[in-house]
Amino acid sequence: MxxxxxxxxxxxxxxxxxxxxYGVLAVVAVLFLVPFGWLFLASLNAEAGLTTEPPAEFTxxxxxxxxxxxxxxxxxxxxxxxxxxxLLTLLVATPAAYPLSRYNLRFGRPVLYALxxxxxxxxxxxxxxxxxxxxxxxxxxxxxxTTLFLxxxxxxxxxxxMKNFMDGVxxxxxxxxxxxxxxxxxxLVRVVLPLxxxxxxxxxxxxFMTTWGNFFVPFVLLLAPEKQPAAVTxxxxxxxxxxxxxGLLAAYSILYTxxxxxxxxxxxxxxxxxxxxxxxVKG
Amino acid sequence: xxxxxxxxxPRPAARPARGRRxxxxxxxxxMAPAAGLLALFFVGxxxxxxxxxxTNLALTGASASDPEMVGLANFREMFADGDFYSAxxxxxxxxxxxxxxxxxxxxxxxxxxxxxxxxVVRTVVGGIVVSAWVVxxxxxxxxxxxxxxxxxxxNSALTAVGLPANEWLYExxxxxxxxxxxxRGTAFSMLVYSAALSEVPDDxxxxxxxxxxxxxxxLRHxxxxxxxxxxxxxxxTITLQTLSVFTLIxxxxxxxxxxxxxxxxxxxxxxxxxxxxxxxxxxxxxVMLTIGAVFSAIYLRLLRNEV
Lengths: 283, 307
Known about the structure:
The structure holds 2 protein chains of 2 kinds. By secondary structure, chain A is mainly α.
């Protein structure tokens, strides 16, 4: 008897609350979309200002103009920095994660705590000492040194993720490989890594995306215009005194954003689950 | 960089047996490259801080090549500087407003509203919110600058419906950057809470509803206790991320007008690079590192059982 009466009173109420929920979600979605409007419309407008308005004439001229050799070089620099940091992260984090995942190390836990602790430290704060250090070591304007620094700052989290993904690969498969005479290294490369390919991809893409989007680090460490990545070049569009070419700024922003959106969509689609974030932490 | 994630999911059921003890070489060699990189480019600069903060190191001039030890002078100067206190208070307001209240609450509300809605709604709304998070920080800064600038979208929309325009970035700089940062960061909290809520069993809610518990009571006595851990980790993570936000504010207001939106990262940047006082800037860096370290240690305690 009770369920029936409850059902009959809550059903309409449920419909109302569902409608309210959809309403709120719709409003939030629109509010979140609004700032994007300017970006897209201005990029197609040769006379764009700061207002969101449809251009008198839709044109791709901004994109054509932005794709000049200087800016293409900046994109190339971004790929070198981000790709370099992501690749280096894999090369360094994978072997480092292996003992943490597989061996019963006396210092295993302290190391994991230290890594986790490091992920919380504000990298912004160490940019002043890093700059000072780079000046004294004459490393300012060095792309390799900047790549190494970007790798190092992402490494604690990368090792942490990698270790958790590795924990998800059963050790028995590896043992079978040993029985067949494979060394620990061979087993890692041939058996463990292929099985945790989604995890490896997440670490790579995550590092690539954070490096690609990083403005402050290259802004401080790379001063020569021909070495600066897109993140810094784009700021000069904006920071220059005088008239800002907003159409160009918007077009450049879209081109600069496209790779990370594509990577995110790819990882999201193939691996699912919000960048596999939960997996990243919990293995 | 603390883009870590939630502690919502339970421990994986099957953990690999970790019985082996590696020989010293077995662990030392594979870990050496990572340890070297971290020592050089992570620990190194932090230790360097503790030397530079006690010097008058500058960007140029005599004290650039030959800095002198000045003891606690930088710290004395800092604690006597009104701008420093202003930056510290603005940082607290920025973190509280945009992370703890804004992103956290909006993320939780979105996650709750999206729960048990149609998949297509979840995909669309979730996708829109996440896209704000995927956009690089500097582009987010441009977009919000365009939205809030004097001749920006918001003002033209307001005048179109007959409302007065405002110099948002000039009159309400802190609120402007807070809203932009809520926009940018809410996705993370939403994802964390969505994952946490997906593990709250539906029948608990239904049973409580049958017993006559109101929606508010169910939220308070069922949902919130079950997602408490996720909430704590989320709060720590977004606090740490928001503490070090530089680019968004730098683009939107540059810390101005005056110092009205100058949080600690921007204050440090200005002192070290604009005013060339590297030693002084490093002293500010130590304060930021200390705050980060305290929050990070709390974060670590929260996650302790999960490692």
